Amino acid sequence: INLLNLCVSKVIFIIIMFQIHCASLHPENAQLLRPKRTTPFWRGFSRPVGASCRDNSECFTRECRNKLCSLRILQE
């Protein structure tokens, strides 16, 4: 009976370990996206020229180039 209990315990342990190993907490292709700050409160904290940025909405000048807030240059 002890041998049978040991075998059953090992099988249950292996099944549990397999389930834990195969369980994925996050999909590999999922990207963490930061929500855009579009409320009037956050618009007051826009980034100055030269600060790092991800898109145009983060910069005071609304111009994000090469991940830096820049001045908008008019080409005529």
UniProtKB/TrEMBL annotation:
Cell compartment(s), UniProt: Secreted
Please give the biological process terms from Gene Ontology that the record holds.
antimicrobial humoral immune response mediated by antimicrobial peptide; defense response to bacterium
Which UniProt keywords are present, listed alphabetically?
Answer: Antibiotic, Antimicrobial, Cleavage on pair of basic residues, Disulfide bond, Secreted, Signal
> May I ask which residue range the UniProt record assigns to the signal sequence?
1-22
Q: What InterPro entries is this protein classified in?
A: LEAP-2 (IPR009955)
Gene3D superfamilies according to UniProt: 4.10.40.50
What GO cellular-component annotations does this UniProt entry give?
extracellular region
One Pfam family this chain carries? LEAP-2
* Primary role: Has an antimicrobial activity.
Q: Which family does it belong to?
A: Belongs to the LEAP2 family.
What's the protein name?
A: Liver-expressed antimicrobial peptide 2
**What is the organism field in this record?**
Pseudonaja textilis (Eastern brown snake)
